[in-house]
Amino acid sequence: MSASVEVSVHDTRVPGGRRRLEADLRRLGDYVARRAARPVELSFAILDDERMQTVNRETLAHDYPTDVLSFPMASEPVLMGEVLLSADTARREAAERGHPAYHELLLYAVHGVLHLLGYDDHDPTARRRMRRAERAALAALDVPPVFGRGR
What we know:
This protein is an alpha/beta fold. The chain is built from five helices and four strands; from the N terminus they run E-H-E-H-E-E-H-H-H.
């Protein structure tokens, strides 16, 4: 299966560097295409908290910044969607959790793409299923689990 991945950066302070992130997001796209058994077209935008809050307010009426927002565009025959990631939130959360901000940002990318695939995390059973899928996708990117096993 093929993957098309586009990355736009609106926060110039990308943890880990833009080139590295673009390469890993392309790897994530390839992984998802293989797992979903269909082509994928993904667009990722790296934002600061201010822009993320604006989008969150305008699209979901939530007037606060968030870590990741996913916008599905199509699921068949091609999985298409846009995923917005907050670099500010990744830096802040990673510092609190004691791991690299780059890994946190990749977690957001994986999490957002899983939402495009239909995963949910609003109840304990669905959250466990999503965490397993996150760990598998992060492992495919050579990133250790960001969340502990019980979370």
